[in-house]
Amino acid sequence: MTAPERGLLYNLVERARRRSAWLFHLNTGSCNGCDIELVTCLSPRYDVEQLGIRLEGSPRHADILCVSGPVTHNTRAALETIYAQMPDPKVVVAIGSCPASCNVFDGSPVIEGPLEKIVPVDVYVPGCPPRPHLIIQGIAEAIELLTEGRMVAGDIQ
Amino acid sequence: MNPVQALLALLVFPGLAYAVPMGWLMLGGERKLRARFQGRIGPPITQPFWDTVKLLAKWPAPRVPGDMLMLTILPLLSVGSALGALALLPVRAGDSGFTGDLILLVTLLELPPLCLILAGYASRSIYGEVGATREAVVSIAANVPFLTALIAMATAAGSLHISAIATGTPWSVRIPAMLAILLCLPVKLRINPVSLANAEQEVLAGPLTEFDGRLLALWELAHALEWVALSGFVITLAAPFRSASGLLDGVLFVAASVALVPLLTLLASATARLKIGQATRLLWRWASTVAAVALVLSIVMRQGGR
After folding, report:
1. pTM for this one?
2. What is the ipTM, given to two decimal places?
3. Contact B50/A47, CB-based, under 8 Å?
4. Is the peptide bond before B176 cis (omega within 30 degrees of 0)?
């Protein structure tokens, strides 16, 4: 496949994607530790809104899906629906150890994780819970992936 | 108003060419100021522009064709009616509009909330329906004082002509009427004390839950235009005189629109979201009372003057 023509419009869109990433946060059975750390990123101390990042209420509006928690049996359908509802281009960020490895819940009969078995994961943020700095770094990496726009102009395999 | 003037008003000032950047500036200023009031740095003031570009570049989600028609028409209608309302604003002394333009302007200003309510129901999302119901209840509660105050001003001025109302309403009626209109302004802009229709996180994204990409960008644009149109409407009604120079009037109009943003933002950041009962009670009890006082005063004045 040839590289896309980098015209003015392409650069504008690229810049817009870098400056306006909207998050959707989904708790798939997390203990709330990671959720609290994610919300901390929006507080005056860390203030991710200065990067144009906004926590959105609807998956339809979002660019980045932040998942915390090992995927439990009850939340699996919600996760699949929400992932399907997000418009392309989209990126998935796994926040904390639970979505990466199921953490201490590994082996439980009600756990269907880890997350990568169900949806493709782009960025892992390690920690139990991860510090807000690390979450912001993970989101920044996700924004870089968004900016590349892997799914622009029908690139989907 | 001849056709060329009307087209200029629609497309240049105070229409499209002015209102779109101004709306983005107002929304961006609101976000920036709210962040500063909360002790944050906040997004750059150009943020709404980047949000719009990003949303336009998203891939649309597949939908049923029947749904798609409805979900496309509603935001377009909303943008169009907000632009129409802007074009009718008598900013300069020269373009004095026509008799009855108040009724047309109010109708056009009421269309975007109505579209939003319909969109909430049409999107077939439970969160959209809850948001639409809240929006409907609150806008009925807000429209009673809003329209009463406008009727009071029209009665006092003896005209349905916006320019005549703006210049001809006596202060004893104008002050309570404007107070009632100002109390309704946060409701119509859906900002904080009465932001229960689009209550973020609480009902996901309210009526806009199911909208994505381009359609959401259109709604954001409609919202920005609503800011410009409503603040412009309040300013034209509140300003009792026009200067001789059209340019000076335009500059003052823009300056007053910009000055309204910090006031509304201060209110939004200083207050928490009201419950639906509290919001309707506030509007029915206080805004309606003030508007009723204005109406009684205007009727008494007309009887006395006759």
Report:
1. 0.89
2. 0.86
3. no
4. no
